[in-house]
Amino acid sequence: MRIFQDQDLKLEEKFIALKKKSSMQINYFENEKNLGYDRNIIELLFKCKGKFVMFMGDDDYFNKGILEKYLNFLRENIDKGYVLRSYLSKNPEGYTEEFKYLKQEKIFEPGIETVIFNFKRSVSLAGFTISREKTLPFLKCSEIEGTLLTQVYLMSEVCLRYESIYCPLLTSFAHQSYRNNNPKFGNSEQEKKGIRLDQLHKTIQ
């Protein structure tokens, strides 16, 4: 497990405690400056070593008892470029919503139809899972920084070229409180220039 943290959110002591309790190998990286949402995703993909990378926001968490089942699913589908996962959303009002897009596992052929199907279903970062090796050719595209949708860009490039798969396991909880309208993004130098959804559209085209 690799954890990246921006310089203004120092949590090293908490992860030292976590490392003592966990049987997993945990590596903690603290950025020298605030890289922001998009650059953190890119740096994580550069520095990870596994076949797949599964992303979690700092306020998201794994569904209880699901991690080993999901790892087995990934081992069985090691050749896939992208995994469209199912997840749960916990809302401030107190109810939990399931995001399950299909009734069962499904393999998608590479192409624009797959990208279109996955596009809006890949915005939430909780449990977002993609082949590290297959993303590498696209990580130097600086135009995506500041869009807050780097994961959608990477999904699009990978799904145009490689098979992807839907996993019906409810992998994670996405927290939807937005920290009382005080989210932990928008503070890096690139993000302060504004969210550039028009640039993301041009980049994918």
3D structure, described in words:
- The structure is a single chain.
- This protein has 205 residues and is α+β, with helices and mostly antiparallel strands.
- The protein has one domain (51-204).
- Helices cover 34% and strands 22% of the residues.
- The strands form two sheets. Strands 3, 4, 5, 6, 7, 8 and 9 form a seven-stranded mixed sheet that branches. Strands 1-2 form a two-stranded parallel ribbon.
- The longest helix has 12 residues, at 36-47.
- The N and C termini lie far apart (33 Å).
Condensed summary:
The chain is α+β, with helices and mostly antiparallel strands. The protein is about 35% helix and about 20% strand. Strand 1, helix 1 (about 10-20) and strand 2 form a beta-alpha-beta unit.
Rg calc: 17 Å
E-strand count: 9
Query: How much strand content do the residues show?
Result: 15-25%
Tell the overall outline.
globular
Q: How much is the average pLDDT?
A: 80
Largest sheet: 7 strands, mixed
Which class best fits the helix and strand makeup? Answer: alpha+beta
* Integer tally of domains: 1
Order of helices and strands: EHEHEEHEEEHEHHEHHH
Topology:
Elements: E1 2-5, H1 12-21, E2 27-30, H2 36-47, E3 52-55, E4 61-62, H3 67-76, E5 82-90, E6 96-99, E7 106-108, H4 112-119, E8 128-131, H5 132-135, H6 150-159, E9 164-175, H7 178-181, H8 189-192, H9 197-204
Parallel strand pairs: 1-2, 5-9
Antiparallel strand pairs: 3-8, 4-9, 5-6, 5-8, 7-9
Q: Which short descriptors sum up this protein?
A:
alpha+beta, 9 helices
